[in-house]
Amino acid sequence: MSIQLTSVTKTYGNQKAVNNISFSAKKGEIVGFLGPNGAGKSTTMKILTGYIQPTEGSVSVNDIDVISNSIESRKSIGYLPEHNPLYLEMYVKEYLLFHADIHKIQKESISEVINKVGLDKEAHKKINQLSKGYRQRVGLAAAILHNPEVLILDEPTTGLDPNQLVEIRSLIKELGKNKTVLLSTHIMQEVEAICDRVIIINNGEIVIDKKLSELKDSNQQVIKVGFDYKIEEQFLQRLANISAIKNNYDNSWILTFETEEDMRPKLFDFAQEHGLKILELNSENKNLETLFRELTSTK
Ligand code: ADP
Fold this sequence. Notes:
Residues 3-228 form the ABC transporter domain. This protein has helices at 41-48, 70-74, 92-102, 109-116, 132-144, 162-175, 188-194, 212-217, 233-236, 264-273, 288-296, and strands at 3-12, 15-25, 30-34, 56-61, 64-65, 77-80, 150-154, 180-185, 197-202, 205-211, 220-227, 242-249, 252-258, 278-284.
């Protein structure tokens, strides 16, 4: 397996930054690692890349134990950390040469990588003269220079403008074709645009690990409904096929049904039977965004 985490916990003082998480990823998969700020994404990635050690659990990359054999495992990993720490005073080529030296690889591969990430026109410049999008390309170039099998990208598109976003996403998709990519983000659309699978982490725990195709096939239906009158949650439990009830605000509710049948007419009947008037009714697509809010909301 390219990536394997088993029962990993990382504790800071009495806080569990990640709490007993396990997942794996295989070659060819682009996995979106989603979660709100502070959920534990960076911590997990730092553990995977051997930058910090877990308090408990085991981690391997490309079947090499990251904890006992950290240097060896890093040969299989390309890592783009959050905020892309570059040496801004260096020229692009100089910076990549520096990385090539660290990895003891042939300098010839640099021009190939520069071409691959679309840096040809900017390669003669100093890094501090580049736009944020091109700096990300430099970070990605450094990450793939030694042709690693696994790419760990920590929020690689944060701070990019809409054009740069599209370009970097398609570059990641292209680079990920023959690799395993774990990409953290808090942008749901990003996962929908480039990933095959999504793992959502919240408060240090994995709350979902699914293929995107499975999510799309889901026969769950989410309806936002507002009544003219305050009712108790238990009352809504009487609705057929109901699987989750959440108060939106005041008399407005977010209801999840486990059925393919359109539940809106049933809700009208239900309201009428009980002398309620419906003031608001919206059927929401059960997309990643609703799922994310449901699973990570603190309300
Ligand atoms: P994310 O990347 O999802 O935003 P992090 O992995 O950075 O989340 O952080 C998870 C939790 O662990 C947060 O509550 C954060 O404050 C805490 N944390 C991360 N690094 C440290 C550290 N070095 N010392 C203490 N707490 C930390």
